[in-house]
Amino acid sequence: MTRPEAIPAATGDTASDSIRTSRRALLQMAFGMVAAGLPLLSGRAEAAVTAARLQAVSRNARLTLTLNDTARWRLTATTRPARLVLHLPGTSWRGGTRLSSAGPVQSASWNNRAKQLILNLRGPVQVARAESEGSQLVIEIGPGTQAGFARLASGTIAQGNAGGTAIATRDLPLVVLDPGHGGKDPGTIGVTGTHEKRITLAAATELKRQLEATGRCRVALTRSRDVFIPLDGRVEFARKRQATLFISLHADSAPGARGASVYTLSDRASDALSAGLAQRENRADLRGGLSLPPVSPEVERILFSLVRQETRAGSDRIATTLVRSLGGEVPLLPNTHRQAAFAVLKAPDIPSILVEMGFLSDRRDEAALKRPAHRAKVAKALAEGIQNWLARHQASLAGPG
Predict the structure, then answer these.
(1) Are residues 252 and 356 in contact, defined by beta-carbon separation less than 8 angstroms?
(2) Partners of residue 178 on adjacent β-strands
């Protein structure tokens, strides 16, 4: 038996089924979605890892490998001992970087005979991310629960090839959190000068932490720092990753308004306040210096009619669930579930909602949202609602029996 070589790192029958299948196929065709698959490998060159880095990122560990264009990979887990195993068949290790420990990863070792990179873990983890980005493979690992880690160990977590898209075969649902505004777009500036972009990022980071601690879902942020992202880029971020749910977080401005509220997509606003908020948010791209090409009303109506049956019911259900969860923790805006034509909610295939956590134009809301304890309370309510919705959603996908 070959002893693994320690690699110490740098730093840190039914008609309804047929109809449902056909409709989904139509949506995929309409929006240019192609099922992900692994291309055949030519085998003309030797597969190799040419660089490697393992670093701590907050409480997580991020493994980044540079692969040449013929390398294939597959990620699995074992519970006894707790390990993640990255299979790299036919691949040589020529990275030269020495890997040690980071976050929940205690150590790393390369088994040259088995062509495996073995990550020894300090305990159960969840894989927040495993995907190829050009020539790089990025795997992000965070603390998890025993139950969640056992699910990961029940089969392949993800697999792919250099330059291709990762295919998750037994993975947890992905929730994409979108902290509103950022960079040159500060969003609303509160009564005492609080920038909305900072409140939304802090709240999204806390919600991500609480959701990941359950081990029942993966979470990704459209931005993790103070940068500007166009509205369509936020939507595309979620669609590219085949997210199960998209939630955009805001703390806007509206004279006389106070309290949390939840919004879903509609071609007509439910009230004047919602219409005004949507118009203001949809101008974010202009504030960021980007003017998007217009879409004709005819095309917009066709797209909206296609997506309504697939996503609107799911969006409404999550909105209702979150309103119920928030109501026990924070003040609510009257008629809490509202509708408007927010551009950021227009993902055609992902249930999407926008949460106004409060209004920075109200001194009481602004003071509350500046406090980490209040943001944690809001995140706790949102996390509970999201978990309830995900459980029902996953059960509906599994079907009867």
Answers:
(1) yes
(2) 248
Token couple for 247: 């939630």
Quick count: other Cβ atoms within 10 Å of Cβ 5? 10
Angle at 210 between CA 204 and CA 215, to 5 degrees: 125
**b/e burial code for range 36-62 (CB count within 10 A of at least 16 → b):** eeeeebeeeeebbbbebbbbbeeebbb
Helices (H), 216-348: 231-240, 272-282, 284-287, 297-307, 313-327
pTM of the prediction? 0.58
User: What pLDDT digit, counting tens, does each position of 334-389 carry?
Assistant: 989 888 778 878 777 789 999 999 999 999 999 999 999 999 999 999 999 999 99
Coil, strand or helix at 55: strand
Type of residue found at 245: L
Residue 200 contacts residue 180 (beta carbons within 8 Å):
yes
Distance, in Å, from the CA atom of 385 to the CA atom of 381, rounded to the nearest integer, reads: 6
pLDDT digits (tens, 9 = 90+) for 238-271: 888 888 999 999 999 888 899 999 998 876 655 5
**Which residues are CB-contacts of 337 (< 8 A; sequence separation ≥ 6)?**
261, 262, 263, 264, 316, 319, 320, 323
